[in-house]
C-alpha cells in the first residue's frame, strides 16, 4: 500500500531515471576531426615546399614484426603520404641489440631531412625502452616520451617541446566538442606512460580536477561515476559499463582491443574499453572505436612533426 | 508525531554520527620520527668518517633575505650540524643576476666536498627558476626538482635519483604509521611543483588512487571527503574543516602559515592548512603544525644528501 505522497515521490524518481537515460549521446567523430586537421597540415606542407623547398620528414624505428606494430606503422606511412611528408623507416630484427637501435636513432638524429623520430612501442622485453628513448634528440621527440618532455609536461610553468599524441588528441576532441574542462572532474582509467600519465598531466594543465584509476584501485566504478570527463585507457575490452558513468558525462575511449568475430572479414574486430551501446544511453557524448581517439592520435603525430620541422627550419 | 520505526531509525542515525566523531585521532609525531631518522643518519656519518675520512656536504644558495627563507635555511644549518654534515652557503643579494646564481651553482657542482646542493625557493620574481634548477648537477639535486628527476618520478618503471623531500616525508610518515596506501583513495590539495605534484606522483607509485584538488576545482570539500588519505598543501590557513574529512581519514597537513597572535612571543604563530581541532574529532590520524610534516622534510633532505654522498664516494 503506497501512500499518495510516497507514490508521487516514486513517480518523480522514475522521471529522473528516464531523463538520465538518453539514447542519443553525441558521437564524437574523431575521423572527421582528424581529416580536417590533416587537410590544414597538407596546406602548410605545400606552403613550406613552395617557399623553402623542404617538407617535414618523419622516421620510424620498428623492431620485430608484431602484428599490432605493423598495423600502426602502416597507418603512419599512409598519413604521411596523405599530407606530403617524407617518411623513412628503419626495420630491425626482433633479436637485434640495444646498440643497433641506438645507432639507427643516432643516424636519424643527424639526418637534417628528418624532423620527427619515433620508436614504435612496445619494444621487445629485453630492451630498456627508457634508455633508448633518451638517445632520441629532444627536438625530434614527436611522441613526447623523452624524460625531459614528460618532466616539462608535469611541471607547472614549463612548456614541453611536444605533447604525447594520444593525450593531445583527447584534449583536442574535448576542445572541438566545446566540452568545459576547467574545474570539472576528470577520471583517467589506466596509468600507462604512453596514454594514462600524459593524459592526466594534460587534463590538469587545462585545470580539470583529475584522478587516476588503475589496477590496484578499490571501487573503480564508483570513482568513474564521479567523472564529468572520463578517459578509458586500460586496454580491457568493455571494462567501462553504463553503470560506471555519471549521466551526462563525456566519454573518451582510448582502448583498441581486437576480439574474435567470425562474421567479420579478418576473423576479428576492434572494440574499445567502453561498452559503447550502454554508454550512448548514459553519456552526453562518447567517442566510437574505431573512428574516435585513434585517428586523432595519428593526426597529432603529424602536427607534432610539422611543428618540429617549422622549428628546425625556422619556418613561421 | 514520530512513529516507532522512524524513532528507531533516528536513534540509529545518532549512534552512527557519534561513532564517526572520535575525539582522539592519533597525532602523528613528525618531530620524533625525524629525530629517529637523524640519529641513524648521524651513525652513518660517523661510520663514513672513520672508514674513508669524508662526511656528506650540503650547500645552499640563498638569494635575498626573505624572512621565511632565512628561517628555513637556519633549520637546515642546525640539522646538518646535528648529524655531522659539512654545510656551505652562498648568499647572494636580491638584485643579483641569473648568471651569478648559475656561477655559484657551477662552483658547487665542481666541489667534491659538496654532495647535495639546493637553491632556496622561492627565487625573486625576475628569475627563471626552471633554468637555474637545471644547471644543478643531477647527482647533487637533493631537492629532486631537476626536470629529469621529476620526469623519472612520473614515468613508471624509472627510478629518480632523488625524491622531493616533503613528498618523501609524507609517505615516510604514512609507512611509519602503518597506514595502508595500496588501492586507497588519496586526495592532494594543492598542485605546487614543490609539494603537490611530487606528492601526487609518489602516492601513485605506492599504488594509491590519487586525485589533485586545486584552486579551480569545483566542490573541493566533496572531493576531499572521499579521501582515505588527505594531504593538505594549499598554503591556506584552516582551509580544510572537519566537514571536509571522511570519518577515519588519515590527514597530513603540509601547510605552515603564520598568523598574528599577540599572545605568542614573536607576535605570530604557525598554523596548518587543516583546522586541527576539528580534524582530531573526525580523522583517525593527523599531523600537527608545527611538529608534523615540517621536521620530516628536513630529515628527508639529510637522507637525500647522505645517499648522494654514498653514491659519489662509492661508500656502501
TrEMBL record, chains A, B:
Pathway: One-carbon metabolism; tetrahydrofolate interconversion. GO terms for cellular component: cytosol. Catalyzes the oxidation of 5,10-methylenetetrahydrofolate to 5,10-methenyltetrahydrofolate and then the hydrolysis of 5,10-methenyltetrahydrofolate to 10-formyltetrahydrofolate. CDD domains: NAD_bind_m-THF_DH_Cyclohyd. It comes from the Eukaryota. HAMAP family: THF_DHG_CYH. One of its GO terms (biological process) is tetrahydrofolate interconversion. Homodimer. Belongs to the tetrahydrofolate dehydrogenase/cyclohydrolase family. InterPro entries: Aminoacid_DH-like_N_sf, NAD(P)-bd_dom_sf, THF_DH/CycHdrlase, THF_DH/CycHdrlase_cat_dom, THF_DH/CycHdrlase_CS, THF_DH/CycHdrlase_NAD-bd_dom. SUPFAM superfamilies: Aminoacid dehydrogenase-like, N-terminal domain, NAD(P)-binding Rossmann-fold domains. It catalyses: (6R)-5,10-methylene-5,6,7,8-tetrahydrofolate + NADP(+) = (6R)-5,10-methenyltetrahydrofolate + NADPH. This is Bifunctional protein FolD 2. The keyword Oxidoreductase applies. Keywords: Hydrolase, Multifunctional enzyme, NADP, One-carbon metabolism, Oxidoreductase, Photorespiration. GO terms for molecular function: methenyltetrahydrofolate cyclohydrolase activity; methylenetetrahydrofolate dehydrogenase (NADP+) activity. Transmembrane segments: none annotated. Residues 164-312 form the Tetrahydrofolate dehydrogenase/cyclohydrolase NAD(P)-binding domain. Residues 28-143 form the Tetrahydrofolate dehydrogenase/cyclohydrolase catalytic domain.
Amino acid at each position: 500500500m503506497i501512500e499518495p505522497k510516497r507514490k508521487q515521490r516514486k513517480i518523480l524518481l522514475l522521471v529522473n531515471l528516464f531523463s538520465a537515460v538518453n539514447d542519443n549521446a553525441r558521437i564524437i567523430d574523431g575521423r572527421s576531426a582528424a581529416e580536417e586537421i590533416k587537410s590544414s597540415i597538407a596546406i602548410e606542407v605545400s606552403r613550406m615546399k613552395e617557399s623553402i623547398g623542404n617538407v617535414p620528414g618523419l622516421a620510424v624505428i620498428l623492431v620485430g614484426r608484431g602484428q599490432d606494430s605493423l598495423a600502426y606503422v602502416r597507418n603512419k606511412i599512409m598519413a604521411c603520404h596523405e599530407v606530403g611528408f617524407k617518411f623513412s623507416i628503419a626495420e630491425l630484427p626482433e633479436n637485434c641489440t640495444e646498440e643497433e637501435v641506438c645507432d639507427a636513432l643516432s643516424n636519424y638524429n643527424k639526418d637534417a631531412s628528418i624532423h620527427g623520430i619515433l620508436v614504435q612501442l612496445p619494444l621487445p622485453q629485453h630492451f630498456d625502452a627508457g634508455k633508448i628513448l633518451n638517445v632520441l634528440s629532444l627536438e625530434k621527440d614527436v611522441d613526447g616520451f623523452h624524460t625531459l618532455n614528460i618532466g616539462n609536461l608535469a611541471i607547472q610553468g614549463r612548456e614541453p617541446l611536444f605533447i604525447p599524441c594520444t593525450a593531445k588528441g583527447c584534449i583536442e576532441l574535448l576542445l572541438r566538442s566545446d566540452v568545459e574542462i576547467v574545474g570539472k572532474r576528470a577520471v583517467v582509467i589506466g596509468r600507462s606512460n604512453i596514454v594514462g600519465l600524459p593524459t592526466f598531466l594534460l587534463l590538469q594543465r587545462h585545470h580539470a580536477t583529475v584522478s587516476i584509476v588503475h589496477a590496484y584501485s578499490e571501487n573503480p566504478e564508483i570513482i568513474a561515476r564521479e567523472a564529468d570527463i572520463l578517459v578509458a585507457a586500460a586496454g580491457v575490452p568493455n571494462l567501462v559499463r553504463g553503470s560506471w558513468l555519471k549521466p551526462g558525462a563525456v566519454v573518451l575511449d582510448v582502448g583498441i582491443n581486437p576480439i574474435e568475430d567470425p562474421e567479420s572479414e579478418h576473423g576479428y574486430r576492434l572494440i574499445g574499453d567502453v561498452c559503447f551501446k550502454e554508454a550512448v544511453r548514459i553519456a552526453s557524448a562518447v567517442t566510437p572505436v574505431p573512428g574516435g581517439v585513434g585517428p586523432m592520435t595519428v593526426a597529432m603525430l603529424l602536427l607534432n612533426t610539422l611543428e618540429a620541422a617549422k622549428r628546425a627550419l625556422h619556418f613561421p
